[in-house]
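Give me structure tokens for this 441-residue protein.
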Amino acid sequence: MFNESDFAPLYDFLTKILIFFERPSFQIQLLAILLGILLAWLLSKVLKSLIQRWELPTYLLETPVQPFLVIIYYLNFPLLGLIAIAFTSQLLLLQGWLVGLLTKVTTLFWTLLFYRLFIGILYAVFSPSFFRPYHYRLFAPLFILYLITEILSYLTNLEPITNIVLTSFFETAITVGSLFKAIVGLYFWVGVLWATQGLLYRLITQQTKAEPGEVEAILTLSRYILIGLGLIMVLSNLGFNTATLAAITGGLSLGIGVGLQEIMGNFISGIMLFFEGALKPGDVVEVEGDISVVKRLSIRATTVQTFNNIEKIVPNQKFFTSSVTTYTGSDRLMRCLIPVGVSYKSEPEAVMEILLKVAQDHPYVLDKPKPVVFLIGFGDYTIDFELAVWLDNPIIQKIVISEVNQAIWKAFAEHNIEIPFPQRDLHIRNIASWEKLNGNQ
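Here you go.
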């Protein structure tokens, strides 16, 4: 149970904040800061809109002018904020007011200026679509954390608050500071690993001839191993010793054995997929009757995307407990079988020549292995053929079949070859009974 004395530093912190807000000088400075930030924000929106609408000549886009505009686009708000804060500081000094809070905010705006300069340079160097995830998942949270820490440190001493004991676990005291450091440290450790994986993947695939799927699989597995090591380091920093970690691991093992069999099965299956390389990003597989492309492999599940742009999250265990067809296991070659039926008035040899000519003229049909035509049987009203063509990309299978069928239709029309449709002849054995029946009607 918590004692009221345990949270005394927190009460003192809130009391100091209230005292600050009750001071007229603090209120005046806070109001000046809010007005300055609002004015700077509105003016920056106007400038950004003007930059976005500014149509530069084509030759200027190939010069350093464009990166310069990108940097200015990110610097206008902190520059305007510095001007606004400096102006309000001078006004308050002329009136004899204190400007300590404004001085601190000025320092923060200078920090924001250098941060935005750094971000602007990166956006100018890299494409926005590539750098944007790194910006919002790594750099922006880090800067926000810095701002919050600086503001709270200015208002009060944070050390007593960080020493507040929240709970005890295996006789190890968990304080506010240790828990905060553990959560933040683990978040940025995972973020740095994610960013490193993306950069290494981009570098390796562009500079070498390595298979992209294999590179992503190896980097993903390495990232999960490092995340596990980071988790152990976080627990160690919280104060857990070796015996405690062993006890936690034993408890987790018991929990996994009792109620998390499926998760553990998917975890082991994911590791096996990574090591065996049986499945890689970019592979074409058939899952639950849908031909799909493997987009991402993770420890728990695999994400596939169908040709209808629908993503499915498939548990890894499914690839070991059920039959899965892959079109890109050893290579990307596949054979398409196109059935064709013609009337009995046609010459089989002529039909086979036409089908081969159509297949050979299609740009996506491979010459090696060469197309082949089979006469597979005689139906009720058609002579049945089968055109076999080879492709080097399973994804275009339906497109090729559709285009080849259209070409066959046109070629048959040019050579007067009929594609019959189902017909049935009705034979009436007793004409007298039929006429009698009609007469009664």
